Amino acid sequence: MLAIIAGIENEQENFDYTMQELRALAEADNLTVIKEVRQKLDRPIAATYLGKGKAEEIQQLAQINDAQSLIVNDELTPTQIRNLENITGLDILDRTALILEIFSSRARSKEAKLQVQIAKLQYQLPRLHTSASQQLDQQTAGNAGGGYTNRGAGETKLELNRRVIQKRITLLNKELKNIDKDHETQRKQREQNNIKTVALVGYTNSGKSTTMNGLLQLIGQAPEKQVFEKDMLFATLDTAVRNIHLPDNKEFLLSDTVGFVSKLPHQLVKAFRSTLAEAKQADLLIQVIDGADEHASDMIKTTEKTLQEVGVTNIPMIYAYNKADKTALSYPTIEGNQLVYSAKQQESLQLLIEIIKDNLFSDYEKHTYLIPFTDGKVVEELNKHATILSTDYVAQGTKLEVELTTRLAGKFAQYLV
Ligand SMILES: Nc1nc2c(ncn2[C@@H]2O[C@H](COP(=O)(O)OP(=O)(O)OP(=O)(O)O)[C@@H](O)[C@H]2O)c(=O)[nH]1
Ligand SMILES: [Mg+2]
Fold it and tell me: Does the keyword DNA repair apply (predicted)?
């Protein structure tokens, strides 16, 4: 399908970047963008978003180029959609609907599907009017079932449709809550185990999943633990958590999360709140940035804004500039909390592990224990959970120089030399 994209340029400094994003989003929805239209306005026109003249221009452009859709850079009101439809004769898709479409086509897990459906219905609800309500799509509004019988006499078709959608949202939310509960239990369990957590966050397509897979491979994890990575927007819609157990027995949990884009629809942020909030529990965030993209600094701003929106604040962060192989920079390098690396290079991943260790385990205690030969189990336990710096066999038993957490240290206090 051929499409025209259009946006309103006001004072915002990152307008070019948001238009480039819109183009990428359109392409992610299998649309071919043939023209880009910009209009300088302080704010959108209430009735038509773009000026009427501009809209007529688009109608002609579309006719000449055979375009079928118009995609606009902001969320539209129902009136704006209707009026633009009338003037241009095109299918109108606003930025929110476009992002919802992409999420919808990517959702694989039960949870992601529910979240997307809820967001879509939330978007539809205020946009129902008599004509649109008749086109209510079967899949989303369909089996809300039951309850028709006690509707008040004289209820209009519109009111009925609103009620059906509302009911469906409630139902889906209930289902989602049950899944969330399971995740909450899993999270609590992890917390009890006292294992530190690292979350990969960042703009969509920056290389979070590739980084996760690289680290898994580096520590020799089975291939079936790998997550889906692909050169497309929003490849990941579910959080995946993996255990990273290093050869020196230090271990942490690594989570790969859903990527961000600017102006992420509030309906989606709300529906995906629990998925997005996974990073809230983290001890360390790795913000993965596509260092080869000219808009990298805008993408960082977008990521930080979104993290704030979902309440992920005050967690230490490493800025990880990925895809260095596509730049002239030498890599891997680390300066302060800025890493330049490539998720596809082993040396880079090794450095990343070192940085994570420096951040997570700086509070490890160093002790020397002497364990009588009769307490072989203790040696076994230390070998499993502590970083062993040296092992010595002396007359009284095994002498171990180790690094371990304060919690573990408390457990072995009696063996201190
Ligand atoms: N050249 C190069 N490509 C990379 C590098 N890291 C990732 N990529 C590519 O970037 C694309 C996106 O990678 P993903 O890991 O799926 O990105 P993501 O951040 O998980 O994206 P979402 O899940 O959509 O948010 C893939 O085609 C990767 O192969 C890198 O260091 N160098
Ligand atoms: Mg991903």
Answer: no
